[in-house]
Structures are given as structure tokens and as C-alpha cells.
Amino acid sequence: MSAAPRPAGGPIRQANRERILGAAEAVFARAGFNGATMAAIADAAGLPKANLHYYFGSKHALYREVLASTLHEWLVPMDGLVPDADPRDALERYLRAKLALSAARPDASRVFANELLHGAPVLGDMLRTELRSMVRRKAAVIEGWIAAGRMAPVDPVHLFFTMWAATQTYADFDVQVRAVLGRSRLTARDHERAADHVVSLILRGCGLG
């Protein structure tokens, strides 16, 4: 999948766009699409509201950019799942990359999850085309590893569902995780332990532990 289109511009323009996107992630994550306002996002970004309309045109366009950017960031680590890669190393790198994104951009993950819970009205076409195509290609790679006896037989598509659930839960259900662990926030050590656990569990299930 290619990244969402970005207009040309200098470093200040790009910095402003990223600042707006970061603020939008936070506001959409807490208020949802309907509850979010361009004024609230502008306040969070520390920029005039007119800047948001200049860069993105509308709330819907900004929301779509947040979603597309998140999906793109999640798909990039899948590039390492190629036929000649070592299955254990490739899957571990993928899992750790996904977990790192959950730790670094939890609001983006929550916005994405909320979009799916509402039936993916904005992302539906992208999920049915680009995401589906990517998963099919990478599932074929895993099937090749299985056929060559390089890992245990698993359902490749459902393996992706399991990996997504295991990695995104630390962002989407952060409140639940913190409550059980007795934390006001997840620490770097908490994320490290989570990564080690998820990687070990998935690799063992794939006969790679």
C-alpha cells in the first residue's frame, strides 16, 4: 500500500501537517469523529483553525488522513515477510515493530479501532482492497514457509488476525491493561515485557520457539 498523498512543501509545512495529525489523533481518539471539532484539534495543535482547513480542507479529510496514515504505518513492517527471509526473525521483527507502534502512537490505534467498531464507513474500501491484497500476498509467503517445512502448519490469515489483536490491545485496551497491572501509565519496561511475551507466544505457536 502506498502512503496517503502528501502535498509538496518545505520542512515548516511538513512539520505543521505532522503537528496537526498528532493533535487530530488525540482528539479523535477521545471524542470520536462526531464529537471532534476542528476548533478542538486546532487548540490541541496550537495552530489557528484556518491552518487546519488550509492543509486538510475539512474534518472528514483530516480524519481520513489519520486513518490512512495509521494503516500505512502498520503495513510497512509487513515488507520484511518475504520468501527468502528466516521465518522466526521475520515474524519477530514484524511483531516488535507493531508493538512499538502501539506504544508510540496509541491514539492512532484507538481511532482506527473506533472506525472499525462503527463499520469502517471511511476505511471500508481500503480494507477490502489494499489491506486484503497485502494480507493475501503475505499469507502466500507464510504458506511457502510451511510447505518447505520451515514452520509449523498454521492458518496464515488467522495468524495475522491473532498478531494484530495481540499487538494492538496494548493501545486499544490500555485502560484495562493498566488497571490489572496497577499502573497509572504503562512504562517502557511494561512494553518490553509485553513484546517479549507476545513474540514468545506467537513463535512457539508457529513451531519457531
Please explain how this structure is put together.
The chain has about 210 residues and is an all-alpha fold. The chain has two domains: about 10-65, Homeodomain-like (Arc Repressor Mutant, subunit A, Orthogonal Bundle), CATH 1.10.10.60; about 70-205, Tetracycline Repressor, domain 2 (Orthogonal Bundle). Helices cover about 75% and strands about 0% of the residues. The longest helix has 25 residues, at about 10-35.
Quick tags:
single chain; 209 residues; mainly alpha; Arc Repressor Mutant, subunit A; Tetracycline Repressor, domain 2; 10 helices; 0% strand; globular; disordered N terminus
The helix content, as a percent range, equals: over 70%
Q: Could you name the CATH topology of the largest domain?
A: Tetracycline Repressor, domain 2
Please report the distance between the alpha carbons of the first and last residues.
Answer: 31 Å
Count of individual domains: 2
Low-confidence stretches: 1-8
What is the correct CATH architecture of the largest domain?
A: Orthogonal Bundle
Radius of gyration: 19 Å
Number of helices: 10
Question: What is the H level of CATH, i.e. the homologous superfamily of the largest domain?
Answer: Tetracycline Repressor, domain 2
